[in-house]
Each structure stands twice: as C-alpha cells, then as structure tokens.
Amino acid sequence: MDMTHSIENSVKDYLQKKYEVTVESFEFQQTRKEFEGDITLVVFPLLRYVKTNPVKLGEELGEHLVKDVEQICAFNVIKGFLNLSFTNSFFVNQLEEIITTQDFGTQQKDEKSDKMMVEFSSPNTNKPLHLGHVRNNLLGHSVSEILKANGKEVFKTQIINDRGIHICKSMLAWQKFGQGETPESTEMKGDHFVGKYYVIFDQKYKVEIKELIEKGHTEEEAKKQAPLLLEAQKLLKKWEENDTETVALWQKMNNWVYEGFEKTYSDLGVDFDKNYYESETYILGKEFVLKGLKDGIFYKKEDGSIWVDLSEDGLDEKLLLRADGTSVYITQDIGTAIQRVKDFQINGLVYTVGNEQDYHFKVLFLILKKLGFAWAEHLYHLSYGMVELPDGKMKSREGTVVDADQLIEEMVTSAQEIAEELGKIDDLEKEEKQKLYQAIGKGALKYFILKVDPRKNMLFDPKESIDFQGNTGPFIQYTHARIQSLKRKANIADFSVIDYKNALDLKEKDIIKHLLKLPSTIAQAGDELNPALICNYTYDLVKLFNSFYQNSPIIIEDKNVTQFRISIADQVAKTIALNLNLLGIESPQRM
RNA sequence: GGUCGCAUAGCUCAGCUGGAUAGAGCACCUGCCUUCUAAGCAGGCGGUCCCAGGUUCGAAUCCUGGUGCGAUCACCA
C-alpha cells in the first residue's frame, strides 16, 4: 500500500551494492503539480553518502527504480528532485483496495485498545454557555471521535463546577429580587434564567460599591464590604455547613441550569459518558495531599497550610491545602484525576481546557508524577486558544459574550434563508427541511471553529456572518449531497467492482493519491489531538473532486467509465461522511 | 519584571519532522447553468512570511537577539 517503503528498499539495496553505503532514511514529498510525477524523492540528502552531483544521482536512481519496481513506469529529474510516476494499474489496484477495506482510514478497537478519557466543557453553573464553551465542546467531541477512529476506547466526561461563590451570588439575587419567578413562569431557558440573576447580582453589587465609595471608603474596601457580597459569602458558608434550606435552593437552581445545558449540548450534538460534580469531588484530593505530606513530597508552613515546592522543575511553590484545611482548585483536580483512573481503568486522559490554564496543568501533572502515579505520564492538556472578538477577549461582565444558543439559532436561520432562496429542496417535507437547515447551519458553525488550529487564538466577528461558501462546512456537505444525487441517477448496483483498462486522467489520479493519505491523516490528527487536520484534508479532497466533477462527465455511454468514475465518487462521499462525523457534522443526502 | 505562546496577501486562515516559483477562502475583477445539484468550476489581481544576525547545498520552518500582541505568575476557578 505505502509505496515509499518499496522505493526506499529498492534505493537502499542499490546504494548498498553500487556504492557500499548504508542509508537509513529517505525524504519523500508529493510532486508539485507543475511537474510530472506522483511522488518525489529528494536527492540532496543522499549526497552526504555518495559524492556526486544531484542530477546525475537522480537519473541513476530513476533508471534503477523503473527497472526494479513494478509500479513505477517513468521518471524525470529536475535539479535535485527525482520525480517518479506510477503505472495505471497501480492506481486502479489502490482504489480497489481502498474501496474494499471496511471503514478505510480508521482502526478498529479491540481488547488491547487504550482506554482514554476526554474531559471537556466543564462549565460553571451560574451562566449560560458562550462561544468559548462552543469551541471547547466541539474540540472535545471531535477529539473523542478521532481517538475512537484511531482504535481507542474513549470515555467522555465533564466536571461541573456546581459549587462556590458564583452560584451563591445567583441564589442570593434570586432570593432577594426574584419574587418566586421560575424558568417556567418566565418561559426562559434555565441557564439563561439563572444567568440573569447573576447579572442582577453584579448590577446591585456595583451600586453598593459606588455608594460606599461616596461615603468615603476606598474602592478596595468597598468591594470587600458591600453588604451583598458579605451576604453571598454567608450563603456559601451555610452551603458548606449543609444548611437544609440553602442546599435545597442550590439544588433547585442548579437543576434549572442543567436543563438549559442539556438543550445546548443536544443542539451541539455532544454528550458525556459520565459527569463529575465538584460538590462531590472537592474533598477527594485532600487525603492524597496529606499522604504526600507524610511521604515528604509536600511540606507544611507554620500556619498549617500545605505546599509543594516545584522550584527544581523551574516552577514556583504552590499551595495545595489552606491552613483551615479547605481545598483549592488544584486539590480537587488531584483527587478527580485519581478517581477517574479508578472508575474507568483509563491509561490516558485528555483535558480540553483553554491555554490560560497552561501553568495550572503543568503543575498538576508534575504533582501527580511526584505522587508516584505511573499514568501521570499519559495526561495531556489539549490547550486551545481563546476566541477573540474584534475588540479583544470576550468578557461576561461587560456583556460582550457571544451566546451559544443564540449563535446556533442564527446559523440555522441563515441556512434556511439560503436554502429557500436557492429553492432546490422545495419538494421536501417540512420536517425534513428543518432537519436539513439544522445540519447545514451547525455544519457551518462547527467547521468554522474546528478548521482553525486548536492551539491558536481565533477571531470571531459577530458583524460578519459565518460563510456558507468556499472553505466551509456547507461546501463539503454540498459535495456529499451532489455525489448522492449522482449515485441515484447512475443506476449502478455495486460501486465496488473495479475493472478498468483505460488510462486514468490527472484528476482521477489526484483523488486516489489523496484518498491514500487518509489513514496517516487520521493517525496524525489523533497524535496531535487536532481536528483541524481532518478539516484541511477533507477540504482538499472536496476541491479535487469538484474539479474532477466539473471537468469530466461521470454518467456517460461507456458503462465501464461510468462504473469507474462513480466508484471514485462514492468513495469520496464515504470519506467525506467519515470525516464530517469525526467533526460532529452531518452529511446530508440532498441540499 | 519572570515564564509560556503567537506574528504569513486588505480580512480570516493553511503551510507535516528544513526542500522546487510560499498556498486556500472571503473581498475585488473576467468567463462558465440547452449535459450528472452554480452552496460549484476555470482564470485574474494581491506577499519585505514582524525585524536583524546565525546554522547549510537549501530557512516561513531550526538557533540567538530585538520589536509588537496575548496569556500566566491568587489561600479565584
């Protein structure tokens, strides 16, 4: 299957016999389209072993390869580049192998498969999800699917930050100003409803601060002494003391939020195998911190707080447990990681968390290693960049966040408008149409976000709507739909029969060559936890196919040609569907 | 200030472990629906790959220094 191996072996033998040198690695690249050939061997690196000029060596190797390797039929040498051409039958055979391979490009999981957990989303329960969460969710879901395609067993999880001062603020505001209204009575989505009270808290809190400053307090004092904040803190304390009424309120409001989140997750097409709740796990880490203390890995300060010294690893000292014995963020992360390994016997864990927490995860992984957990070697922080607006970062307090639910709805509406204008699906049932608008609108949104390298910050301009043309989800979906239409019209029962003696044209070869790269692309996307690679690959494939489609008629008189071309088309469609699925995007039959 | 990351066309982004004349999309301009879906195809315009050194047959890519932007350095999460 992989031609580079046969070429490598042949060249290796040749150099050994002729020049008595042993060359271990060779450099190949795709032949640039302005030159003739299907693969290119770069000759320059070989000059280290064989002192001659690159063109001469290239010619020599070319002549040898044409004789020695059956699938190579021609070559040319330009400067230090040896361009090799494959035979017609090579391409036909490769296509046949691709078509007859079940789920070509992916690996099946078996008993020996790695068990990986992917954590993503992990929201606070005081406000609805925004565009930043959307990027997080889409990445987490896609990476999970990509890992599955690489033969891993995958568990998806989130940790819900359901406790703390933020939810108490919403609770307090609702108690004081809510007059008993509920999501039902206001017909609001639960997370938006609770978020509304978080905003109300902040507004009233600001008024109090202003009043205190006017009475002569410094800003800092005012922020700490504002009655509302003190009350919220009191509420948190009551919660920690398990006060029945407070816990009941906390549960009620959190449940409203969960209902809202459920809707958003379902809209995004993401789900989880298990939810962890911080209110249940925040105590977990403590015993391991204490154990670490006993083992001398950590140390205690005079005030009783527990620390770890990471200065030998180039980092600072880090607090692990407060003097009063309460836990901090990292304490619970230690416990949660240990719990997860216990619960699922995983041997790898991916944290989908923004790059603002790079330092935190460096520290966390180091601590787990120091505690002696072998699996700590297999923790990965999928550190993704911020979604920025034209005027900078999104800030919830300043109301510049892009709301997830609203954005999804807008995308679906846009899809509907475009589809209605084009009028190609007017004959579909109402329900079918709605499904299609959903698929296309979300396809546009998801692809828009996933095509960007996760590690990089990306820009979203709310004033400029997300495109449906060019390098977009709908463009790819469209190509899939068009191929389905071809298949319906071709009247061919079996797309897997390949018996073709005609000469392949350039575009057919290009498509087959690109299909051959699918396995390594999926593997690389898995290694790098990078869905953007799938986007790029799929986009390139679709462009190649569209060019082919538009320039060579597929359904023609000659049944043999039709059979061959429709088989290529079908395989392209299968590949699109496979890849879009890895991205969490649907592949419509029509559009 | 220390640490980490980023800088490529007017805008948004690709560019794999160094390889041929740096690529797409959007925008702008020109063609193509009497033949399989024009959310498409063919083409044009557009670049000091942030700057300066270095490494070598060869650097957008690696190294050093600088500039700019961002993140982080909490008994917040």
TrEMBL record:
A motif ('HIGH' region) lies at residues 123-133. SMART domains: Arg_tRNA_synt_N, DALR_1. Residues 5-86 form the Arginyl tRNA synthetase N-terminal domain. Its EC number is 6.1.1.19. InterPro entries: aa-tRNA-synth_I_CS, Arg-tRNA-ligase, Arg-tRNA-synth_N, Arg-tRNA-synth_N_sf, ArgRS_core, DALR_anticod-bd, Rossmann-like_a/b/a_fold, tRNAsynth_Ia_anticodon-bd. Keywords: Aminoacyl-tRNA synthetase, ATP-binding, Cytoplasm, Ligase, Nucleotide-binding, Protein biosynthesis. This is Arginine--tRNA ligase. GO terms for molecular function: arginine-tRNA ligase activity; ATP binding. One of its GO terms (cellular component) is cytoplasm. Monomer. It comes from Psychroflexus halocasei. It comes from the Bacteria. One of its GO terms (biological process) is arginyl-tRNA aminoacylation. It is found in: Cytoplasm. Belongs to the class-I aminoacyl-tRNA synthetase family. NCBIfam families: argS. The gene is argS. The keyword Phosphoprotein does not apply. Residues 476-591 form the DALR anticodon binding domain.
